[in-house]
Sequence to fold (61 residues):
Amino acid sequence: MNDDMPRQRHEISSDPSRPDAARIHHRRFTLATEDAHGVYEKVDFEPLKDPHKWMYFLRLG
Fold:
């Protein structure tokens, strides 16, 4: 992680009755974490099934 970037905390809920959960209309949602895998597993995230198929592009500046 880049030490110049601030850490942000976001609450994620899998409870469909919550207003913030109702705004998520996508079938697939991905995230990256260095050390909070257990936190996200509690709200139904799971490891990528085929990580070798995924790529990313990072635009700097």
Residues 30 and 41 are 12 Å apart (CA to CA). Helices lie at 19-22, 37-41. The chain has a mean pLDDT of 75. The first helix runs from residue 19 to 22.
